[in-house]
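Quick one: structure tokens for this chain, please?
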Amino acid sequence: MNLKSKIAIVTGASSGIGAEFSKDLVSKGAKVYGLARSLDKLNSIKEKLGENFIPVQQDITNSEALENWVEGTFSNDHTPDILINNAGLGYFANVDDLKISEWDKMMNVNLSGVFYLTRLIVPFMKQNENVCHIVNISSIAGLMG
């Protein structure tokens, strides 16, 4: 796939797999909107990757803020080609030790956040003349007991 001049969105871009996805996409010519909660970490990545990495401080569990960002960033003439839903977190405990607040936070990030952003991006991808891609990253945590 030729990534030159493609527009990508990567969540969880401030570290780990998200930072590596961003690095790889930028190295192949894509413009990457890197989303994460930590602007300092995103700015550090921008220093390494250059102008094709756009840091976006965003909490994907905040649907209203996501909607404002998407509507203010994308248009008929500026549509995303790639969405990588990578942000995620996990609390590892026995079910009777896991706090309800921890469960709720995991579900908000790992499920609702993916839904919110995907739901907002798909209409723009439908306007895109190119074939678009959505990649959802998960872990093996669901296989662990």
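The beta strands are 7-11, 31-36, 53-57, 82-85, 133-136.
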